[in-house]
Amino acid sequence: MDVERELETMKNGSTSRGNGIGVYLLHRAKPHLPPWLGVAGIGIAGSGAHLLWADSVGAGVGLTLSAVALTGATWWAGRETSAQRRLHSAITVAAGSAWMTGAALAGPLSGILPDTYLMGGAVLALSWNVRMALRTSDGAPVTESGDKSLLAKVGLAKAMIGRTQVEPNRVTASLALEGGEQTNDDVARALVRIASALDLPQSAVRYQPDPDSARRGELVIVPKDMLGQAQEWDGPSLPGGSITDPLVLGQYDDGSPLMVWLPGDPEAGRNASHFLIAGGTGSGKGDAALNLQTEILSRRDVILWLSDPKSFQDFRPLLPAYDWAVEQGAGTEAMVEALQRVIPARTGWLGKHSYRQWTTQAAETQTDPAHSCRPDRTACGCPGMPYMVAWMEEAANTLRALGDDAFTGIAQEARSAGVSLVVSLQRPSFDQMSTSTRASLPSVIALGCDARDEGFSLPESVIDQGAHPGAWGNRRPGYCYIVAGGIDPERYASPGRTRQFTTRAVSLMETLAQWAVRNGATADPVTAGAAKAAVGRAYIGRRADTDETEQQVPADQDDDMATGSLIDPEDAAMDPENDLPTVQDGDDVPMFGQDTGRKPSPDEARELFARALDEFETAGQMVVGPKDFMDWCDANGYSRPWVSARLRDAAAEGRLAPTNQTGRWRIVPALTPA
Predict the structure, then answer these.
(1) Are residues 520 and 623 in the same domain?
(2) Taking burial as the number of CB atoms within 10 A of a residue's CB, which of 137, 187, 345, 423 is the most buried?
């Protein structure tokens, strides 16, 4: 208000030039007058006290005790200020009270008291003037430090700023709150106000609580957003490396690399990770998936299964590199069923070879006697087992089709089998994913979303630290928070950005896929055998010697082409030497214009049904239900209840096995024991 009044006076010109200069100088001198007024007051008080208590012994004792008490009170009251200000205040009070006591007892003009008053008083007053001048750039009064002023604005006036560490584009300050009055939750609620006071985006300010204290932590401020310029993907970070090496997805806002890990590490105490990738439309979820998949496919000891209801719209250049890729519907059902068989098979193999969890050594031929499955503990020479990633893209469709707990058992058991599950969907809310499944996916890549959905993507503790993907929405594609094992918890609330895939990346992705075909891992016999036992020809697997342009075909079709056979599969079982069947009742009934014709006998109907199952198996559709037989029912004149009964009979005979979904059955491969 003083500055405003001064400007108003200068604009109105209501005073003369001389008076204006005098008023200006007086205004500038006002902040520096209190120390001098204090010195003058001490002189007057000392002279008056001498007149009253010059000969009083009791007054001398009382003045001495009062001086000590006043100095102690000043020291105690300064505990909320800086150490320099506290010491300066205590010295000033001690010097002033000591001179007054001496002046009251001996007289202000006795001995060295006059010289002490004139020189010491001036020095103390000037020291406060210098202190004030150094703390402001324009001579205006400053009553508290900038840090204290900032905290006072956001409701944390009693908090203390401690050690401050300044790094390139990052400031970290330790913060101590008022004991019994403030907690770390108060800082979490004040973060948006701190960002407002500093004129920074909300994501630039975060707070890391001390796990051993409810009122201490570190305030982190990143003044410059280094993620504004998107980085284009220029290839995988470590082609030919191991899946145990970090997977680089982009960078954090301070320029450090954005990395994740999938397998566990016994030495580092890190467990294998399942990942949830969550983000709204336009948040860059597709680029985040491509970053992670290209890193996985560029490693030598891992295979990747992919379920993508979008017909591989984003991943088609990588299609030859997948060990198994399916679209939605029956293909995804078959993959889920295969996973349920593969996981215990892999766990059993690892256990027999003395692996408590998957390591890089498990992917190599087992030549170490310490990892032999033989009773005599000699090297067994078994083929190695590569790490495995099962990726469920746009998993909301799969969850709707298979039930919201379709992945629960897989997620709970897969880590011990050397399998990581990646589930990608837009909104991991409770109405799409069961709480058990969500709890089994603790690692998350959270991209921009609706502000109301933040709690579905990130733990509450990370949101309290300042992570708010809802502030981005779809306006900043690729911006994300990552919570996962191997990452410093202090990084959980630090935003990062994944690299961007443009049309220029397509050629390089195709080259990567060709490299993976020639050099990448293939499914081990245990994994491939369990998958084929579960879903038969629905799983083919990528062969190491398969040319990238060759289309894989079922084994029977491949054999037919090799032998040049042109026989229709429906006629393959016919013997040309046998006579035609005799005419039966109903055979002469016209096909059209009649409501009914001859129906097969029960034995013939069962044979037709068995043949229908064979046709589904040959086509690679290994999960069926009554709805899949609608055309067959229309062609053969049978009702859906009859088909349901035949499905139950086939299950009792071992030709079908139940799935987790009511009304859906898995076809047991014909050559596999039930």
Answers:
(1) no
(2) 423
- The pLDDT tens digits for 383-398 are 999 999 999 998 877 7
Nearest CA to 296 out of 486, 528, 530, 521 is that of 521
**How many residues can be counted in the chain?**
674
Is 70 domain-assigned?
A: yes
Strand order of the β-sheet with 247-252 is 257-260, 247-252, 496-498, 479-483, 443-447, 275-278, 419-425, 387-392, 302-307, 324-326
Which helix or strand (DSSP H or E) is residue 445 part of? strand 443-447
Q: Could you tell me the CATH number of the domain that includes residue 294?
A: 3.40.50.300
Report yes or no on 630 lying in a domain: yes
CA distance 463 to 88: 42
Residue 164: which CATH number? 3.30.1360
Q: Retrieve residue 387's tokens.
A: 């790490």
Phi, psi of 326 (to 5 degrees): -135, 160
Phi, psi of 31 (to 5 degrees): -60, -25
Distance CA(472)–CA(427), nearest Å, equals 15
Q: Give the count of beta carbons closer than 10 Å to the beta carbon of residue 182.
A: 20
Residues 421 and 319 grouped into a single domain:
yes
Asked whether 153 and 197 are in contact (CB, 8 A), the reply is yes
Q: Do 512 and 659 share a structural domain?
A: no
- Whether 139 maps to a domain, the answer reads no
Task: Say yes or no: 285 and 386 in one domain.
Answer: yes
Which tens digits make up the pLDDT trace of 506-535?
999 999 999 999 999 999 999 999 998 888
Closest CA to 671 of 605, 621, 614, 620: 614
Nearest to 489 by CA among 178, 206, 76: 206
Strands of the sheet with 205-209, listed across from one edge: 160-167, 170-176, 216-221, 205-209
Q: What is the identity of the amino acid at 467?
A: A
CB 296 within 8 A of CB 239: no
Interatomic CA distance for residues 37 and 609, integer angstroms: 108
Cα separation, 497 vs 229, in Å, equals: 10
User: 340-388: per-residue pLDDT in tens?
Assistant: 889 999 999 999 999 989 999 999 999 999 999 998 889 999 999 999 9
SS3 of 443, please? strand
**Domain residues for 177?**
146-221
DSSP 600: P
Question: Residue 163: enclosing H or E segment and its boundaries?
Answer: strand 160-167
Radius of gyration of the chain (CA): 40
Could you say which of 171, 187, 221 is where a domain stops? 221
Query: How many domains does the chain divide into?
Result: 4
Range in 66-80, 314-328, 514-528, 626-640 with the lowest mean pLDDT? 626-640
Residue 342 shares a structural domain with residue 473: yes
Full-model pTM:
0.64
* 630: CATH: 1.10.10.10
Domain boundary among 108, 134, 160: 134
3-state SS track over 38-76:
HHHHHHHHHHHHHHHHCCCHHHHHHHHHHHHHHHHHHHH
Q: d(Cα 654, Cα 668) in Å, to the nearest integer?
A: 7
Contact call for residues 404 and 660 (beta carbons, < 8 A):
no
How, if at all, do strands 387-392 and 419-425 pair? parallel
Q: What is the pLDDT of residue 445?
A: 95
Q: Note whether residue 404 is domain-resident.
A: yes
Q: Say whether pLDDT at 464 is over 80.
A: yes
Whether residues 33 and 55 share a domain: the answer is yes
Q: Are residues 280 and 385 in the same domain?
A: yes
- Residues 372, 439: one domain? yes
Q: Is residue 356 helix, strand or coil?
A: coil
What would the two tokens of residue 199 be?
Answer: 């004129």
